[in-house]
Amino acid sequence: xxxxxxxxxxxxxxxxxxxxxxxxxxxxxxxxxxxxxxxxxxxxxxxxxxxxxxxxxxxxxxxxxxxxxxxxxxxxxxxxxxxxxxxxxxxxxxxxxxxxxxxxxxxxxxxxxxxxxxxxxxxxxxxxxxxxxxxxxxxxxxxxxxxxxxxxxxxxxxxxxxxxxxxxxxxxxxxxxxxxxxxxxxxxxxxxxxxxxxxxxxxxxxxxxxxxxxxxxxxxxxxxxxxxxxxxxxxxxxxxxxxxxxxxxxxxxx
Length: 254
What we know:
Nitrilase/N-carbamoyl-D-aminoacid amidohydrolase; two-stranded antiparallel sheet; 254 residues; 6 helices; 12-stranded mixed β-sheet; alpha/beta
């Protein structure tokens, strides 16, 4: 399966330009699975320390507009997160869009920061404590949304399930990139799976791009940048089967 990671802005004009180029890339490379950043297309509501119902509704409306355009990527599957609500409770919800059947929810973000620049507990209710597996075409995957990449306790279960990929849409700063990459490598090596991540990019560096594809053995196979904001590779599920039998996975399996 050919998988694509990316970095995307959210401001209207830069986003329109980036989207056109992303669609050209995914079409030219025959992408099967595209991972978009956390809350793709929508302004970073969590940077404000007070919930605003009008801004939330505007975000929902904008997410719906862009979700209707996902077929422009010409991919079979697209994953990201979006605003969703149940009664008065608002969530950061992972979803998958599948050609021919549209969108379906995955899981809602559970681990939420609460600090300057990331007031997520003021915008979102806690979602799903469970981290189940999902499928898209020929791959099985788990969804750890941004901060949840640090939920290290999930990786043993992923290894036991033999998942093909750990998927992590992010909204992380340029200054913390090295730390996040380290977490992505741990996710891949401990799970024996590929780690895929796409990140938002903001002019002030509060989100710094740098999406990645990491092999089950921790090798960085692809990394996005300002000059190359999209990358596509074909992942080998046989590598995941082989990784399950090698160190350190077999130690814990036995």
